[in-house]
Design a protein that fits this description.
Strand content: under 5%
Helix content: 40-55%
Shape: globular
Oligomer: single chain
Strand order of the largest sheet: 1-2
Distance between the termini: 80 Å
Number of helices: 30
């Protein structure tokens, strides 16, 4: 066996080329070569250019300016064809259509079409009590209520409630009716296009930086044509074939989905928009095709004509280059890594983007109305809620709270919202308290039988709504001690009991403005007491096996936050007795109870 190996080594030794001896010249050149290698610095790799699809075959490969001119045409057939083509282009998941340079013209054209279809006159949005841009826009508890709106935002809210929140012809002024065959379809199509465009990241600044787009998205939140029961046959104003009257898909849900996609850009302080308006100014493709009011690089723009065009009028972006030493001061305050602007007073920011901040804050009263089962606009829904809309609102609020700049508005969350979220922790899937409940007085419900009502906790609870509400409560309780105290020490009643109380009581408008609807039924009690319903719901979640799989950890985390407040000690002692009994049966519950809750009691 060693002979073949020896032959192989001899063959390798014979065929191997001889090594060349290093000469003195090579030895002298080697150190220089090594020094040159260490001295030369490697240039950074240029970022790859993004492949933006600013045209689409459904739009005949027209650019944004051409599409906007067709949308602004006086020919209704051309407008309808352009909307249909834009809907097909924006829904093409293989192309990811981007508005591109001049995309703000398309958004402005769609805003104009939305106003015309809804009957909103241009003079309705000007004059008459608008707040100055430099006024105080700090979030307060009133931010979540319609009483905080004024000027155009107040008029727009009242106008949309009259137009979109009265789905019954018998309960609406005939002059306020929207044509279901033409106008309603146009409204729903525009909101659907905005939703489709929001799925492409390059379109988000075109949508969020437009006050008109934010206005129509807020107005669509007041749509209430999704009733599935409780009305007589033939009374539905929009009809069964209307696109917006379907239960799962309507302009309200589409609007919330658009806002969810825009959540990373939404900032109630206005600082991020202020930064964009100050420092974004470039003709590069990556900027000109993703930011509104940008001029692309070209030979003409670099010439005399381009300079004259820049000097003409006040620019909307790149303002720091026009402010002289003031722009230099702002640039020094800008932290490029954290993308924050320090030591700049709010009055300066609100002076530039104050109107846009008010348009952003106008979203929260509309969201509160969706979460309020006693809102007058939801009277056509027997359960008081629209489940797909409530689900989308919870997802949107959870996404908003991730942004530290939005902390101020969540610190002022009202007690009413905390109690509604508490009710959702024990929301049954069936029965009068469920969100999908259909009144058997007006409808024959065959799917609700006695056997279904006798199922256990995991089968009878609305686990998806429970998990979403608990996740939002955890994030809220992480913010401040005040929210922990208000959540753990407030009493609550069931939704059905609260609706019965509200139906039998006649309260004035002044007393109902900001009075939490859940506390109104407990106004006779002397002080707040332990929120028993909250603790019972969290105990059930710990031992639950339904839902997303993280129901137990979410409940433990919320109980841990509540245990940090001394005022919640009675509630933790109430939970302790039951947790000890449950820990004797399940070692997993014993582990999380001792290591996650009891060790944090103050």
């Amino acid at each position: 066996s060693s002979i073949p190996i020896l032959l192989l080594l001899l063959h390798a030794e014979i065929t191997m080329p001889p090594k060349r001896k290093a000469s003195a010249k090579d030895a002298a050149a080697a150190p220089d070569k090594k020094r040159r290698t260490t001295r030369a610095s490697r240039q950074p790799v240029a970022p790859p250019s993004i492949d933006l699809n600013t045209t689409h075959k459904a739009l005949n490969n027209f650019d944004a300016t051409t599409v906007a001119s067709i949308l602004s045409s006086d020919n209704p057939d051309q407008v309808a064809s352009a909307l249909n083509a834009l809907l097909r282009a924006s829904s093409d998941v293989d192309v990811n259509y981007c508005l591109g340079t001049g995309g703000e013209k398309i958004s402005e054209a769609m805003v104009k079409l939305f106003d015309e279809a809804l009957g909103w006159e241009e003079e309705d949005g000007v004059g008459g009590g608008n707040i100055e841009d430099g006024s105080n826009l700090e979030p307060t508890v009133k931010t979540w209520d319609a009483a905080s709106l004024s000027g155009i935002n107040e008029r727009w809210r009242n106008f949309c409630r009259d137009k979109l929140a009265s789905p019954l012809a018998s309960s609406s002024d005939p002059n306020l009716l929207v044509d279901p065959d033409t106008d309603t379809k146009v409204l729903d199509m525009i909101v659907a296009i905005l939703r489709n465009l929001s799925y492409v990241a390059q379109n988000l600044r075109f949508l969020y930086h437009s006050e008109g787009v934010m206005r129509i998205l807020t107005g669509a939140l007041y749509y209430r044509g999704y009733s599935t029961g409780g009305v007589g046959a033939g009374e539905d104003r929009l009809g069964e074939d209307a696109l917006s009257s379907s239960h799962q898909s309507n302009m309200c849900v589409h609007s919330i989905q658009t806002l969810i996609n825009m959540a990373p850009h939404i900032d109630v302080t206005g600082r991020q928009l202020f930064i964009d308006r100050l420092f974004i100014e470039s003709g590069a493709k990556e900027v000109a095709c993703t930011v509104p009011y940008q001029q692309p690089l070209s030979n003409e723009s670099e010439g005399v004509a381009g300079v004259a065009a820049k000097k003409k009028g006040r620019p909307k972006y790149g303002l720091s280059s026009h402010l002289g030493f003031g722009g230099m001061h702002l640039a020094k305050q800008y932290d490029t890594k954290a993308e924050t602007l320090e030591n700049i007073p709010n009055s300066v920011i609100w002076g530039l983007v104050g109107s846009h901040v008010r348009s952003t804050l106008a979203i929260f009263p509309a969201l509160s109305a969706i979460l309020d089962p006693n809102d007058i606009t939801t009277s056509t829904s027997p359960s008081g809620w629209h489940r797909p809309s409530v689900q989308a609102v919870l997802e949107f609020l959870t996404a908003l709270i991730e942004n530290p700049d939005n902390k101020g508005v969540f610190l002022c969350v009202p007690d009413a919202l905390l109690h509604r979220l508490t009710d959702m922790l024990f929301m049954p899937r069936l029965g009068p308290d469920s969100m999908d409940y259909i009144d058997p007085v007006s409808n024959i419900v065959t799917r609700v039988v006695a056997l279904k009502l006798r199922m256990g906790y995991d089968a009878s609870i609305d686990s998806d709504m429970r998990d979403r509400a608990c996740e939002l409560l955890v994030k809220l309780s992480d913010l401040t001690t005040s929210i922990k105290r208000r959540l753990g020490m407030s009493s609550s009643t069931s939704g059905m009991a609260r609706r019965r109380y509200d139906a039998s009581s006649t309260l004035s408008e002044t007393s109902r403005d900001l009075a939490p609807s859940i506390l109104r039924s407990d106004e006779t009690s002397s002080t707040r007491r332990m929120n028993v319903r909250l603790y019972d719901s969290l105990l059930s979640m710990i031992s639950s096996s339904s839902g997303r799989g993280d129901a137990g950890p979410l409940a433990v985390r919320l109980l841990s936050n509540l245990a940090l407040v001394p005022e919640n000690k009675p509630g933790i002692l109430y939970v302790e007795r039951k947790l000890i009994a449950m820990s004797g049966k399940d070692p997993h519950i014993a582990n999380i109870a001792c290591n996650g809750i009891f060790n944090r009691v103050k």
